[in-house]
Design goal:
The structure holds two protein chains of two kinds.
Chain A (H helix, E strand, L loop, with lengths): L1 E6 L6 H11 L5 E5 L16 E13 L9 H5 L5 E4 L2 E4 L9 H5 L5 E16 L2 E8 L7 H14 L5 E5 L8 H7 L2 E6 L2 H9 L7 E7 L3 H6 L6 E3 L3 H8 L7 H15 L3
Parallel strand pairs in A: 1-8, 1-9, 2-7, 2-8, 9-10, 10-11
Antiparallel strand pairs in A: 3-6, 4-5, 6-7
Helix pairs in contact in A: 1-9
Chain B lengths: L1 E6 L7 H11 L4 E5 L10 E8 L2 E6 L9 H5 L5 E4 L2 E4 L9 H5 L5 E6 L2 E7 L5 E7 L10 H14 L4 E5 L6 H7 L4 E6 L5 H15 L2 E7 L5 H10 L4 E5 L18
Parallel strand pairs in B: 1-10, 1-11, 2-9, 2-10, 11-12, 12-13
Antiparallel strand pairs in B: 3-8, 4-7, 5-6, 8-9
Classes of the chains: A alpha/beta, B alpha/beta.
Chain lengths: 270, 262
């Protein structure tokens, strides 16, 4: 099972919440994946031992000097401006290229052929007997839907059927949400903005995952007034922030109650 | 005109809050650009709006279609489906690469631009210019045009002859953040005393040293973890460091820390 957390903005404690849920599943095999740095502070001491377990590969066209007749067709046809000409050499910008094969198709001289190119790694280390993964992309790569879909495909083959994998994505990356919801089993949607949820709820978002609405406790009343009383309210204050930054499990009673409620919904009908 | 960019390693370090406070402190002589695509300013008066379309999508005109099926075979993203009545395009899968347009013998497929969002220029209650962007929830293969927002703000700053332009980038150490940093005179990293912060600060340090950019570090919520705060101050004593304590409210309590930031 893959559980992902999506937050509308930073600073409401989404990583803290996910990590506390992760901790409460101590009786079964779990796995943590951070798509964007940093990892929760508690993993700090183990991180040095991490090693790559998966390489993210993208098909990138390779230009062949011998057959090219410098007609510039590839540059003109590329929709992403990924090909540059520099002193009679064609350079493919790997971070912009979308592997669409256009240059291969349009070149009459067959000067391009596709080669696999490493664009990033998933590193892994062990913490308390559980795997902790983090994604490290090459310098110029931006996390896109393609990356997300490749990583989740890998994740599905990597974890065993009874394992629970927690995925942490930094807040506000709306462009990845539809792909994440499609690929996850459970999505915790953490927000403090009722207008946003109102819009999002009515939109044509994919509904394949079980979506759990989690809201900041001080905005819970707004959600109830708008008819979303099924939302689960979660506290966030200084004490919780201190716990979280020191890598400790949050001891607040109301916080624990919220986590148990979320766990109950996750386990429903499973 | 001095360009100042706010960056952070992760969400939740208080970058947006600090940007808000800067708007209260430096409203007289600055323009503000919010490139984080995470906030809207509903109270502000809108001066201009501009749609941006960074991505394209194929549309098919079935009257011209010969049903040869070439496009279905060539599509790398499986976005086209061949049907006896015509070709169907799945817009969620289409990446706008134009391979099908290229291969179609009858020009039945065309590319159209999709609007991914808006760049909005506004004035707030104190009459200072704020430029920000919004994007769609489900835009596919769209990128964030952070430099367009930055350029708009710079034009305003130059036209109005103002001293400063504050730019808020999105979180993380990535291409978008760096593209904004190249132009800046001063970088303000806003961080929490989080143990993984040093990876980020080392990158910033190296980048700014290479490009001769001044750094002013803000450690927000410094009181949450005194050990790490002290370690940061010790490691980066070459920079000017401002420490801001945890704050529950946003109404101007931290303005006093930002008075001499420039």
């Amino acid at each position: 099972m893959i559980i992902t957390i999506l937050g509308t903005r930073g600073g409401i404690g989404s990583t803290t919440l996910l990590w506390n849920i992760y901790k409460s599943y101590s009786d079964c095999k779990t796995c943590w994946l951070s798509l964007t740095p940093p990892l929760p502070p508690v993993f700090f001491s183990d991180k040095i031992k991490s090693e790559s377990i998966y390489t993210l590969k993208k098909n990138i066209p390779k230009w062949n000097f011998e057959t090219c007749n410098f007609c510039n067709d590839c540059i003109n046809n590329c929709s992403y401006n990924a090909i540059l000409k520099k002193d009679d050499v064609y350079i493919v910008k790997t971070d912009v290229c979308n592997s669409c094969n256009m240059c291969v198709i349009c070149c009459k001289q067959n000067a391009y052929n596709m080669l696999e190119f490493n664009v990033g790694n998933i590193n892994c280390f062990i913490n308390n007997g559980n795997d902790v993964l983090n994604l490290v992309l090459n310098n110029n790569e931006l996390l896109s839907q393609w990356h997300v879909s490749e990583i989740y495909k890998f994740l599905k083959s990597y974890i065993k059927s009874n394992d629970i994998c927690f995925v942490d994505v930094s807040s506000g990356r709306k462009e990845l949400w539809s792909e994440i919801i499609k690929m996850s089993d459970v999505v915790l949607f953490y927000t403090d903005d009722v207008n946003f949820w109102n819009l999002f709820y009515k939109s044509n978002m994919p509904r394949s995952a079980k979506l759990i609405l989690v809201v900041s406790s001080f905005k819970f009343d707004d959600f109830v007034k708008n008819g979303f009383s099924y939302a689960i309210s979660v506290e966030y204050d200084r004490e919780i922030a201190v716990n979280s930054i020191h890598g400790e499990v949050v001891s607040d009673i109301n916080y624990k109650k919220s986590i148990n409620e979320i766990k109950r919904i996750i386990n429903e009908n499973n | 005109m001095k360009e100042i960019t706010l960056i952070s390693d992760k969400g939740g370090t208080g970058r947006s809050t600090i940007m808000e406070c800067l708007q209260q402190v430096y409203y007289k002589n600055s323009v503000f650009a919010d490139c984080s695509f995470s906030k809207i300013y509903p109270q502000n008066k809108i001066i201009s709006e501009e749609l941006f379309s960074d991505s394209k999508e194929a549309v098919v005109n079935n009257d011209n279609c010969l049903l040869c099926g070439k496009c279905e075979n060539i599509c790398e993203f499986n976005a086209l489906r061949y049907d006896p009545s015509g070709i169907e395009i799945n817009s969620q899968k289409c990446n706008g690469c134009s391979c099908c347009v290229f291969i179609c013998p009858t020009e039945a497929i065309k590319l159209k631009n999709i609007n991914c969002g808006k760049i909005i220029v506004t004035r707030n209650q104190q009459n200072s210019v704020i430029v920000y962007g919004i994007n769609q929830h489900f835009s596919h293969n769209g990128t964030r045009p952070v430099l367009q927002i930055r350029n708009k703000a710079i034009i305003f700053a130059n036209d109005l002859n103002l001293d400063f332009c504050f730019i808020e980038s999105n979180s993380g150490w990535n291409k978008l953040t760096r593209s904004l940093m190249y132009y800046s005179k001063v970088i303000v990293p806003v961080v929490e005393p989080h143990q993984f912060v040093f990876d980020f600060l080392n990158e910033v340090s190296e980048f700014c040293f290479k490009n001769h950019i001044e750094v002013k570090l803000i450690i927000n919520k410094y009181d949450l973890n005194a050990n790490v705060t002290n370690k940061i101050i010790k490691c980066y004593n070459k920079w000017k460091i401002i420490c801001i304590p945890w704050n529950d409210s946003t109404d101007g309590n931290i303005n006093k820390y930002l008075l001499n930031i420039i």
